[in-house]
Amino acid sequence: MKNLYHYIFLLAIVLMASGSIKGQRDVINVNGKNIGDKIPASLYGVFFEEISHAGDGGLYAEMVQNRGFEDGTLPSGTTLINGFACAPAFPCYSNDSINRFKIRWDDKLSMNAWTVVNHNGKSSYKITSENPLDRATPHALRLDLNENGSVVSVINNGYWGMALNKGGSYHLTFWMKTSQNYQGELSVYLKNTKGEIVDVKQLYLGNNTKWAKYEVSFTSSNSGNDYRLYLDFKGKGSIYLDYVSLFPVKTYKGRINGLRNDIAEFLGNLKPAFIRWPGGCIAEGLTLENRVKWKETIGDPMKRPGEYNLWGYRSTYGFGYHEFLQYCEDIQSDAMFVCNAGMACLFRNGDYVEEGQLTDLIQEALDAIEYAIGDTNTIWGKQRAINGHPEPFPLKYVEIGNENVGKRYAAHYKQFYKAIKKRYPALNIICALMFHPEVEEAGNPEFIDPHYYETADWFYRNDRLYDHIPAIYGNSKIYIGEYAATGNPSLYSSLGEAAFLTGVERNSSRIQLVSYAPLFQNANHGNAHMIVYDNNSVYGRTNYHIMKMFALNRPDFNLETTISPVNNPKPLQFTGKIGLGSCGTSVQYKDFIVEKNGQAIYTSDFSDLNTNWRIHQGNWNVSGNILTQTDTNTDGYIFLETNQREDCTIRLKARKIKGREGFRIFFGAKDIQNYYMADLGSHQNESVIFGERKNGVITSLFDYRNTQSIRAGEWYDVRIEIKGNHWKCYLNNKLSYEYTCQPLVRHYAVSGYDQDKKELILKLVNGENKPWKGIIRLTNITGIKNPVRQIQIHSPSANSENSLTSPQAVIPQTKYLQGVKDKYHIDCPPNSFTILRIPCSLSF
Ligand code: AHR
């Protein structure tokens, strides 16, 4: 009997240790006495950039693509050389390299979205600038109908078809002029792919040798999203056609040159505290000349030249500065304007103006501010009134540049800051530096703007990132201007972002603003962002719903919230191979040593390449005692054949020859899809950090990245120390990066109090594929009332995601709970985000 008790006792211990005893739960404790950070109303905003057809073919309701026949216009500041639009060979502001940025350029772009069908072979057409409708938009389509009875159809595809709703009204505008003595007819109509026609309008054209505006209204007798606009010309002579524009009459708030109702409302439902415009990299430009020039985005849309926007298409800027400000006002968001800091995007050409020549660009920024909030007796305030809005717009933030780095930027920033602050002291000014060493040099800015495009696991790992911000980064407030979990869009990645947002909310005295990016995406173009649409419908990815849950359930201040897990996670353990590699880079290695306890246990001059090493990928060869990987188009992998089981130090010399990044030293490698690495030159050679590859997905392992790049042509002494889950990387005997790789348990909690509603708001993220069993313990919280509103989004599959065909596959559900008290059992379903709103009082 005694033995039996003994056995039961042991079993209980084992079960307790594995957490599988029924009733054992993690404790989620909320302490109503320990008040944390205030959560500002500004916190949750959005980032707008013309990328993935966010404006044209998206929010902006124009249905005709390439309406002004300007799509063949080269990006400003570039020259056409051998089929490439080439930026000038000017030095890049970050490191004086000559980037010679260029993009392939195709003549056919000028007829983008247009087709001309010649029905009897007696006509021709061309894009011409011989008779500009406006100097800013010089191109037009010229049709030459060479014989009586020539018939030509000019057809526009819209943005992947045009959508019509039965009974809906649409307004077409176009400009034309004809040659002398032109006589002919024009039929305009919309036709779908089945050949069904909506509303034919017949026009008779006399000779009209001056540009004239024509307007036609349609009422649709049908619904569908595969319509195209037809202009059929019949006659003899020449016709010039320009600025062909079709809008639904019902735009958002009925505005002319307005926005799509469905998308504008969908974004409005997020109740963003602010909207950032115009970007993003397009605020910088692929050359400086190519930046968004806000003055070209206001006034008569027909006169706006538009710009090739570095995300692969030309933007009309029909959704320009004025429309942006108007939309902010309409949905009660504050506006954030991003100006250029005198430098083009460093990942493109990076050309810049010298520090002493910033006057014009500073003035450009000041004028933008004046346009938004200046008195109507100022030049630009008056222009705003002329454009229909005498009252100031809600501009509250100005960001100086985007994703800029370095000393040159810090100097530019200071000049902009001084000039703007002097005239507009109440504006919040954001510095585009992230956690860079130049933050101090920039004079301890009001705000800095870190961006994160990392895998879902990076976000799961970094919920605590802002709990302890290193003092070296000063005390600037933080605007997380762009973040997104990369890779397969799924509930799993959205919950990773949610985990990260729990840390943002907890630290919101410091982090005052956050916006996901990119925001919008036309389903026919690019990867899924947050809000996706075609020409007829719109849906939110799971992260849209999660962001909305955060934004609509923002407490006034945080309450201390802790999780005491039943099980402490097992520390990371790994075995595997050591190896060397590269990423899009040609590299050389020599003097390779593995040490244990200070003693060399393996050394190599690579003469043993064929016996002790195995090449997995790349073009590796040995000459003398130097191992070289030459291929810059692939990632290189070579592993030592024996497994490394224990802590060790890897020493070697490494030299970059050419290419994108630097060196990779692997450890704990199972194969080329699963390993850990010291990643020297990660993020396009911006940092030295660690990384993990799991089933092919690389997650960068860093909290605050350093900004150390690997210079080509230089031998570096590299040392990697591996002690359990604590790793250090030294370059030339100087510690470059150290990281402790903690085990990952995807459970998160944050809570706060809504003073108006007198409700505790508790947010729980379960990023695991199994239920999270918890007991909520409410300490120093009284007067708990039921029912408690629960808002929850979840799915049995972490891979679930909404789509055009299943737009509501995973959306939040609300229910009302009874029986909630100071100790309350909760089972968070697998892959879930749960919010509880608990009516109660706090005992201060
Ligand atoms: O969001 C897309 C781009 O990513 C932004 O333009 C830029 O700031 C970042 O690099």
Written description of the protein model:
The protein has 844 residues and is mostly beta strands. Helix content is 15%, strand content 41%. The protein has 13 helices and 53 strands. The chain has a 9-stranded mixed β-sheet, covered by helices on one side. Strands 6, 7, 8, 9, 10, 11, 12, 13 and 14 form a 9-stranded antiparallel β-sheet that branches. Helix 6 (359-373) packs across helix 7 (379-386). The radius of gyration is 30 Å and the shape is globular. The two termini are 54 Å apart. Alpha-L-arabinofuranose (AHR) is lined by residues 49, 51, 279-281, 402-403, 482, 517-518. Alpha-L-arabinofuranose is lined by residues 49, 51, 279-281, 402-403, 482, 517-518.
List segments where confidence is low: pLDDT < 50 over at least 5 consecutive residues: 1-21
Rg, Cα atoms, Å: 30 Å
Q: Per the principal axes of the C-alpha atoms, what is the gross shape?
A: globular
**Beta-strand content bin:** 35-45%
Tally of DSSP helical segments:
13
Mean pLDDT: 94
Range of helix content: 10-25%
Bound molecules: alpha-L-arabinofuranose
Which helices and strands occur, and which strands form pairs?
Elements: H1 2-18, E1 26-38, E2 44-47, H2 55-59, E3 79-81, E4 84-86, E5 102-104, E6 114-118, E7 123-128, E8 140-156, E9 162-164, E10 169-178, E11 183-192, E12 197-205, E13 212-219, E14 224-248, H3 261-268, E15 274-277, H4 281-284, E16 307-308, E17 314-315, H5 321-330, E18 334-339, H6 359-373, H7 379-386, E19 395-400, H8 406-423, E20 428-431, E21 447-448, E22 451-455, H9 456-461, E23 477-480, E24 482-486, H10 491-506, E25 511-516, E26 520-522, E27 531-533, E28 538-540, H11 542-552, E29 557-564, E30 576-583, E31 585-596, E32 599-604, H12 609-612, E33 613-617, E34 620-623, E35 626-629, E36 635-644, E37 648-659, E38 663-671, E39 674-681, H13 682-685, E40 687-694, E41 697-701, E42 715-723, E43 726-731, E44 734-740, E45 747-754, E46 759-766, E47 772-779, E48 781-782, E49 788-794, E50 813-817, E51 823-828, E52 832-839, E53 841-842
Parallel strand pairs: 1-47, 2-15, 2-25, 15-18, 18-19, 19-20, 21-23, 22-24, 23-25, 26-27
Antiparallel strand pairs: 1-29, 3-4, 4-5, 6-8, 7-8, 8-14, 9-14, 10-13, 10-14, 11-12, 11-14, 16-17, 27-28, 29-45, 30-36, 30-38, 31-32, 31-35, 31-37, 33-36, 34-35, 37-42, 38-39, 39-40, 40-41, 42-43, 43-44, 45-46, 46-52, 47-51, 48-53, 49-50, 49-52
Helix pairs in contact: 6-7, 10-11
This protein binds alpha-L-arabinofuranose.
